[in-house]
């Protein structure tokens, strides 16, 4: 009898858990999308104080939310370029290029790619195929091999 009650209780608990789910409301989505200008501003302030890694975090969030909120291509390209500029300031030319190549035909990307063209050309050619490879996964995330 006690085992049956425990089983019944566990079954009821499982049903309750299965039906409980997190629902994202339209208000939450709008609130999250409203954060984009704040993230961009935070990134700019950090960038101006040469805190490039922290600025990059803010700009990556800007990029992720810009994609999620389906902003126009220009806004998304701006976010990508913001991230790229932090890599440029840290001398990470290939990482900057990876971000810029997400929107290679955007005027900002074209301009910034020209800025690092000579730096990229001066990098030694890889002798082996072994190394770190990035593939864009979306929402400011990369698959790194």
TrEMBL record:
Residues 1-22 form the signal peptide. Keywords: Signal. InterPro entries: TPR-like_helical_dom_sf (IPR011990). This is Tetratricopeptide repeat protein. It comes from Salmonella enterica subsp. enterica serovar Kentucky.
């Amino acid at each position: 009898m006690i085992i049956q009650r425990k089983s019944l209780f566990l079954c009821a608990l499982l049903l309750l858990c299965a039906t409980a789910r997190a629902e994202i409301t339209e208000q939450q989505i709008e609130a999250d999308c409203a954060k984009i200008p704040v993230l961009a501003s935070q990134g700019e302030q950090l960038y101006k104080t040469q805190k490039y890694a922290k600025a990059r975090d803010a700009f990556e969030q800007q990029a992720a939310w810009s994609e999620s909120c389906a902003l126009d291509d220009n806004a998304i390209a701006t976010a990508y370029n913001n991230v790229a500029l932090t890599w440029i300031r840290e001398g990470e030319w290939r990482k900057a290029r990876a971000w810029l190549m997400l929107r290679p035909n955007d005027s900002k990307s074209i301009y910034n790619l020209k800025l690092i063209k000579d730096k990229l050309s001066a990098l030694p050619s890889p002798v082996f195929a072994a190394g770190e490879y990035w593939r864009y996964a979306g929402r400011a995330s990369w698959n790194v091999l």
